[in-house]
């Protein structure tokens, strides 16, 4: 009578372990892991890709050295640097900066392009004068009233961009097209913008109505009805309604 003998569990386990080392996929996987680990070390921990140069451009009033320090503190490796985070930090830190563009220059440099805000007018408030840019952002106090720039006053602390655009349009047409010297423009309310001229008479606009029509009618009025001599006694021209009011009437 023949006897069958079962292989012991220990023998089968030992053979199965050895079979793993005979599997080509095991060696391919191990080779891939070694290569991946080497590349990871090379790109992340190697000094080759550690940031050594930070080039700042576009700064006039903002300190390039301060910006470089902030970037350096938040960026060590060219691949791991969080450019979006650095962008947010710079915009929060410097109100004078309108936008930031950061590019990687492999292997070890960052190129930081700064766009500073450009004033389009001056806001008179809190007893002082401040630059305001095209986005209606107040970004810098100035020591004295500049004679060459438009002066804007507002009965509200903040000026909306839409309001600023309307004021700039009025100023451009009056100064450049109609040659009316402007002293200042007051944003009195959402429905009223007052223009004070250097000739000591005022123009009232309604920004909620068709502003182009009001400016066009004003130009026709100056050309056909109001001479330079009549403007000497003029107090105001009110364009806010369908009928134009002139005081005193000419």
Question: Would you mind describing this structure in some detail?
Answer:
Helix content is 35%, strand content 27%. By secondary structure, it is an alpha/beta fold. It has 2 domains: 49-116, Ubiquitin-like (UB roll) (Roll); 119-247, Cell division protein FtsQ/DivIB (Rossmann fold, 3-Layer(aba) Sandwich), CATH 3.40.50.
- Percent helix, as a range, is 25-40%
Q: For this structure, what is the CATH homologous superfamily of the largest domain?
A: Cell division protein FtsQ/DivIB
Query: Which class do the helix and strand fractions yield?
Result: alpha/beta
Count, helices: 6
CATH architecture of the largest domain: 3-Layer(aba) Sandwich
**Hey, roughly how much beta strand do the residues contain?**
25-35%
| Average pLDDT number | 88
Task: Break the fold down into its secondary structure elements and pairings.
Blueprint: H1 9-21, H2 24-45, E1 53-57, H3 64-74, H4 83-93, E2 97-105, E3 109-116, E4 119-125, E5 128-133, E6 138-142, E7 151-154, H5 161-177, E8 182-189, E9 192-197, E10 202-205, H6 211-224, E11 236-238, E12 245-247
Parallel strand pairs: 1-3, 4-7, 7-8, 10-11
Antiparallel strand pairs: 2-3, 4-5, 5-6, 8-9, 9-10, 11-12
Helix pairs in contact: 3-4
Summarize the structure.
The protein has helices at 9-21, 24-45, 64-74, 83-93, 161-177, 211-224; strands at 53-57, 97-105, 109-116, 119-125, 128-133, 138-142, 151-154, 182-189, 192-197, 202-205, 236-238, 245-247. By secondary structure, the chain is an alpha/beta fold. Helix 3 (64-74) packs antiparallel against helix 4 (83-93).
